[in-house]
Amino acid sequence: xxxxILRQIPKMDRILAWxxxxxxxxxxxxxxxxxxxxxxxxxxxxxxxxxxxxxxxGELERRFAEAVRQAGQYHLRRLVNATxxxxxxxxxxxxxxxxxxxxxxxxxxxxxxxxxxxxxxKRGSRYSLVEELLCKVTGAEAAMVVNxxxxxxxxxxxxxxxxxxxxxxxGELVEIGGSFRVxxxxxxxxxxxxxxxxxxxxxxxxxxxxxxxxxxxVLLKVHTSNFRVMGFTEEVTVEELAxxxxxxxxxxxxxxxxxxxxxxxxMGFPGSADVRRAVSSADVVCFSGDKLLGGGQAGIxxxxxxxxxxxxxxxxxRMLRVDKMTLAALEGILRWYxxxxxAVQHIPVLAMLAASPDELRxxxxxxxxxxxxxxxxxxxxxxxxxxxxxxxxxxxxELEGWAVSVSGSLSPDRIEKALRRCETPVIxxxxxxxFLLSVRTILDEDIPAxxxxxxxxxxx
Length: 460
Ligand SMILES: *Cc1c(COP(=O)(O)O)cnc(C)c1O
Fold this sequence. Notes:
Layout: H1 4-7, H2 12-17, H3 19-24, H4 30-49, H5 57-72, E1 80-81, E2 85-87, H6 98-109, E3 116-117, E4 122-123, H7 131-138, E5 142-146, H8 149-161, E6 165-169, E7 175-176, E8 180-181, H9 182-189, E9 192-196, H10 204-212, E10 218-222, H11 238-248, E11 252-257, H12 275-279, E12 284-288, E13 299-303, H13 305-312, H14 324-336, H15 340-346, H16 348-354, H17 357-372, E14 378-390, E15 399-408, H18 412-420, E16 426-427, E17 429-431, E18 434-438, H19 447-456
Parallel strand pairs: 1-16, 2-14, 6-9, 6-10, 10-11, 11-12
Antiparallel strand pairs: 3-4, 5-13, 7-8, 12-13, 14-15, 15-18, 17-18
Bound molecules: pyridoxal-5'-phosphate.
């Protein structure tokens, strides 16, 4: 190996002065740019020592600029969800949509009245900012917001059942994705678990005996979310439980997980979780802010005034408190629920769930036509597909969707990988050896990113 070749490697300062490298690194810390260039120089040196040829000048500049561009990308960034799974937990669950996101950005960029009562000119409470709205849309007497639903369940149990026996059906002792296990969270909150009934059947008399003979002081109902028992089954409805709880004078707590704030029948999911129905029966109901509600990560607690009041006085609340961005997002989404017809149009999650197969087919045809003009190396066809609500929100429900199927000289695996690495990544799915872009979850404002991804897709 000729050591003179190593001397041809450009110096750091010269590389930093290259126009493309400068513009790639313009918007982030200079130290990060230098570190990246240093790493890339080490790599180049190792390649040359291994006998590889020195790249030409243009090639070298492209290489350094690309390394800098990659290093400067945010770790958390926007992408296109083309999986057809509406509440995709790995992809950030509910998208807020541009209008609500703009309100969040505006509120977060400066100061806000997070804990300041503007009419009284004195200290206010962050918990009261959306309470009125939550009461209106859920029908509850009182409501509050915490960090997430797991936190809401914990706060509810810790406040009402610490050191007390809590009756829960064996059919509801579930684990919900990402290590939320009902028995474990009960134990951590200080409640004593009293299992009743069996996995497939729990009757009213099981709850009755739990209270009258086994000393249960609280009834807990948990929505089984991502799990469904089929066949020979029986569960006690929240209305029946409410009647029993009133007769026995014990509180009824309900972890609904997720539910509609508009009529489930009108959304096309009759019999699925209904927040208003749950709230009209249980003493406290909790559910996620970023599942069917369609907002950001949050846990909503709604119910009787005295119950909410007691949770508000629990010291642990401080650990679960929500930030201004969460509250801004929640208010932006919740307002639309004042008019259910508008909610379905303006809340992205609801609009995606309500999209009709005809509408989706039109959208897929339109996208396929645009894509054909972008990259002649691929064939784009429109095919029916199965979408999902996701997030464990509507277990077992499948949605009739439409997708653009992509084929060409690259295998589906290679297409999947290349799109995942684009500047705005596009996440699709592989089904029966085809790469599919399901259009249900592609937002209108995402279309340019999808087109750009395919324009840049190289066949080699
Ligand atoms: C999703 C879910 C949770 C956890 O809610 P997060 O908002 O993810 O913390 C708890 N209980 C049930 C029944 C759920 O479906």
